[in-house]
Amino acid sequence: MYNHCQNPKCHHYTTTDRVRGPKGNKVYVTRNATTYFGIACTLHCLNEFWHHNRQAIKRAIPELPKQSRPFNTYLNENNEWVDINKAVVPEMR
Ligand SMILES: [Zn+2]
After folding, report:
1. Which pLDDT tens digit goes with each residue over 52-85?
2. Where in the sequence is the domain holding 68, given as residue range(s)?
3. Strand partners, 35
4. Residue 81, beta-bridge partner list
5. Number of structural domains, the chain?
6. Predicted model pTM
7. Around ion ligand 1, which residues have CB less than 5 A away?
8. Does residue 39 lie within any of the structural domains?
9. Long-range CB contacts (within 8 A, 24+) of 29-34
10. Domain-embedded: residue 93
11. What is the DSSP secondary structure assignment for residue 15, as one 8-state letter?
């Protein structure tokens, strides 16, 4: 999704794998966003990303109303509520 970790404070963390640049002019850089949905480098950075962008996320994604599920049911592949006690167990192949 993104090339670099989207936590604006990623480079604030002092780790050896963030160090780049020639001797005497070293800097800490943002890590790659290889995990965590391609957004962040660690769960900690992902959490800070959500926190930093919480208002924009809330504006972009409308709130879901409270939802419910009939008691003892699950949703099948035809989008129907099926009684758990009448569930068909798929045959072993
Ligand atoms: Zn990060």
Report:
1. 999 999 999 999 999 999 999 999 999 999 999 8
2. 1-88
3. 40
4. 75
5. 1
6. 0.75
7. 5, 7, 10, 31, 41, 45
8. yes
9. 30/4, 30/5, 31/4, 31/5, 32/3, 32/4, 32/5, 33/1, 33/2, 33/3, 33/4, 33/5, 33/6
10. no
11. -
